[in-house]
Amino acid sequence: MTVEEVCALDAADPLRAFRERFFIPEGLIYLDGNSLGVLPRATAERQRKVVELEWGVSLIRSWNDHGWIDAPQRIGAKIARLIGARPHEVIVADSVTVNLFKLITAAARLAPDRHALLSEAGNFHTDLHVASGAVEAVPGMRLEVKPRHQVEEGIGPDTNLLLLTHVHYKTGERFEMGRITALAKAAGARTIWDLSHSAGAVPLRLNEDGAELAVGCGYKYLNGGPGAPAFLYVAEHLQEQLAPMLRGWMGHAAPFDFTDDYLPAPGIARFLAGTPPMLSMSALESGIDAFEGAEMDALWEKSARLFDLFARLVEQRCGGHGLECVSPPEAERRGSHISYRHEHAFEICQALIAAGVIGDFRSPDVVRFGITPLYLGYEDIWQAVDRLAQTLESGSWRDPRFSVRGKVT
Amino acid sequence: MTVEEVCALDAADPLRAFRERFFIPEGLIYLDGNSLGVLPRATAERQRKVVELEWGVSLIRSWNDHGWIDAPQRIGAKIARLIGARPHEVIVADSVTVNLFKLITAAARLAPDRHALLSEAGNFHTDLHVASGAVEAVPGMRLEVKPRHQVEEGIGPDTNLLLLTHVHYKTGERFEMGRITALAKAAGARTIWDLSHSAGAVPLRLNEDGAELAVGCGYKYLNGGPGAPAFLYVAEHLQEQLAPMLRGWMGHAAPFDFTDDYLPAPGIARFLAGTPPMLSMSALESGIDAFEGAEMDALWEKSARLFDLFARLVEQRCGGHGLECVSPPEAERRGSHISYRHEHAFEICQALIAAGVIGDFRSPDVVRFGITPLYLGYEDIWQAVDRLAQTLESGSWRDPRFSVRGKVT
To answer: For a surface tag, which of A234, B20, B27, B146 has the fewest beta carbons within 10 Å of its beta carbon?
Structure first.
């Protein structure tokens, strides 16, 4: 496949215009949208306004006058559209970690006779870390961690909660949300889904799939900016049953009555805790607004094509260099990134960055390329693999400077 | 006292130059710095750079290249100087609410035979709400809430933790940190101090006062912007003893090793949980940098003078209108705001806002004026009381539009 052929695919891409909504540095192929999405152009302008006018001029009045106080619900409702949920089932708050703590501790107490929180070995580690702490908060609870292929059979009569990441952060493997949620439910367990590597790229139908509880990340495919606040989802029928253990004034039924007694807000708002970081909240809203007019199914179709192109080009051009694709070939079994195992994944990743292709190293031996259908094109994929092939063929990655590790790898 | 006389005080104020570091809207007297500090001029410029260059151009590389990953510790160390702590004893993370949850659940478990978390009735309500949830996470724990004058005698053999707000959000009353911390300690209890209405205005000497645990707010006197991340303090000798129940990857000893097992980071970093909201973090750092060159004792001396001027002018000019000062007259017993009780506090507050003086209504009957010594001057106080006197004398607050309540009051 020639570069001309892939450029023709870009020209025919019905989603091509969305790329113009983003600032992509000249010459850079950014395949790291699943670690930090690029800057939407509208965000830069919007942040100036939020800082210089809403904060600078309107000051405290902006909580009412510029809708700051409603932001968690308003942005949540916009995310709901992207994940197949109803507007009042999603709220933006805190981080994925903190939201997981809220959901685990609240949901586990609904079934006090069941004591296991089951998760996957090799799950994104913050999920396991927060789970290991959250079980300490609920009498008798314990964390069980099983290899991926034993998770389903691990659901038993003592399983209280199943905590799974929908798309695996490293391999991109995807769980079948509907089937597994139903399987767990049939065994009397509830499932919490982590959508961090799904929301904004992979089709999600939380309501249709019977999902009851979920969290997700704002700074990856949602383009909300570094460390953007996260979201959480609670199905309508469960909201009033859950009593948050981690609770605060923003989740109170009447936060400005300043009463000593805690009375949870109706619905999803009870999962708010402290005051939200408005500058970061506002950037998240701009990021999600960049999806306006895009249908998730069309985005997913494009993601799958970009993935297939990547995989095919690597096969054609990088054979014999020891790259082993660890992401599923079938679109319905994977997310929106493609990962390769290689003994020198770290050095290859660094050499690629120096060559203007940003992917992610994931310890100990994986290089990962995020495919963001909203702003990436076919030529990007072609150029990325071209530079990867050159890096491997030339052995440029052996330069000692590419083995120097930063704090964040 | 004439306006000329107060202007002379401004001219002689050695801290006057700090005002130039802030953007204060023309004609506005902003006495709400203890709800949301004003915008530092440097922040506007810095935020553009963070959004447009660090995020927009450097993208994911900024975690290393622009020091994002060290921000919680770096900003924490800057706050430490303002509160009398050592640099490695303070870290920036999450919200006050979430940080309280972390400290309560971790510290309570150090003394499993003691079951009471004692706090003050009428404490800032999020402190009571989060405490009421956190005690559910620790077997046998309960929340005891006593009137302020009974708190000291309420410390008993079953008291595990004492949770107090150093300066009361409504009245401005200040607890004696050193004496009470020692009193609790002698009874075998640990104290958690909430410094939200202290940090950046009131002198704090956490180390000297033997404080072991504290949290505080970034968006009030620290000028960190709306919903700025909060901070937490743990005295060096306690850090390694505490095992956070709410834990996540950013508090792991090796977050980028992606290991399933949780191993807390050495020292204060273990109290990080998820990824920090960098845009809001960065604004907080700029806000704290605006203190550079200011000594806390000098700031406090000025705060006390501004307070005294306010109180004296109100006595002289607003007598007979039913305002009752609820803040202590003695500087060492109070914080940096002055509050008045009035049957129509809400309407008076709204009328004052319309007259260009922003204070805070605090339910059910208090109007509160925050005195931010870093950027307020003597003339500001004079003008504020002048407009207050006019509002009361004219009865302009009786206009029905001033009784309309927003979501945030």
So the answer is: B27
Tell whether A32 lies on the interface with B, counting CB pairs under 8 A: yes
Q: Which of A232, A293, A243, A292 is nearest to A266 (CA)?
A: A243
* B228: nearest Cα among B317, B290, B309, B150: B290
Q: Which fold has domain B46-289?
A: Aspartate Aminotransferase; domain 2 (3.40.640)
How many whole angstroms from its chain centre is CA B32? 12
B124 is catalytic: yes
Beta-bridge partners for A165: A194
Q: What pLDDT digit, counting tens, does each position of B366-375 carry?
A: 999 999 999 9
Cα separation, B208 vs B212, whole angstroms: 11
Task: Give φ, ψ of A360 to 5 degrees.
Answer: -125, 135
Domain limits of chain B? Answer: 3-30+295-403, 46-289
Residue type, A119: S
B3-30+295-403 and B46-289 share one fold: no
CB within 8 Å of B149: residues ≥ 6 apart: none
CB of A273 within 8 A of CB of A299? no
For the question of whether the overall pTM of this predicted structure is more than 0.95, the answer is yes
Is the CB of residue B36 less than 8 Å from the CB of residue A59? yes
Q: From the CB of residue B392, how many other CB atoms can be counted at a distance below 10 Å? A: 23
Pick the closest to residue A359 from A351, A368, A347 (CA basis). Answer: A368
B130-183 pLDDT, tens digit per residue, is 999 999 999 999 999 999 999 999 999 999 999 999 999 999 999 999 999 999
ipTM beyond cut 0.90: yes
pLDDT at B409: 76
CA angle B153, B159, B162 (to 5 degrees): 75
Beta-carbon contacts of residue A149 (< 8 Å; ≥ 6 apart): none
Tell me the two tokens of residue B385: 């009381």
The side-by-side arrangement of strands in the sheet containing A360-362 is: A324-325, A337-341, A366-370, A360-362
**What is the gyration radius of the CA atoms in chain A, in angstroms?**
22
DSSP E strands in B153-290: the ranges are 159-165, 190-194, 213-216, 230-234
What ranges in B32-148 are assigned the alpha helix state H? 41-49, 62-65, 71-83, 96-108, 125-134
Tens-place pLDDT, residues A65-93: 999 999 999 999 999 999 999 999 999 99
**CA distance linking residue B139 with residue A139, whole number of Å:** 8
Residues B375 and B353: their CA atoms lie apart, in Å, by 19
Q: How many CB atoms lie within 10 A of CB B352?
A: 26
Signed CA dihedral, B71, B73, B76, B80: sign only: negative
B78 carries an active-site annotation: no
Dist. CA A283–CA A229, nearest whole Å: 10
Is the pLDDT score of B305 beyond 80? yes
| pLDDT at residue B1 in the model | 86
Contacts of A375 (CB under 8 A, 6+ apart): A18, A19, A21, A22, A24, A33, A38
**What number does CATH give the domain B3-30+295-403?**
3.90.1150.10
Q: B145: part of which helix (H) or strand (E)?
A: strand B142-146
Cβ contacts of A136 on chain B, cutoff 8 Å:
137, 245
- Select from B30, B64, B95 the Cβ nearest to the Cβ of A274: B95
Does A409 contact B at CB distance below 8 Å? yes
- Within 8 A of A259 by CB-CB distance, chain B residues are 125
From chain A residues 142-161, the ones with a CB under 8 A of any chain B CB are: 145
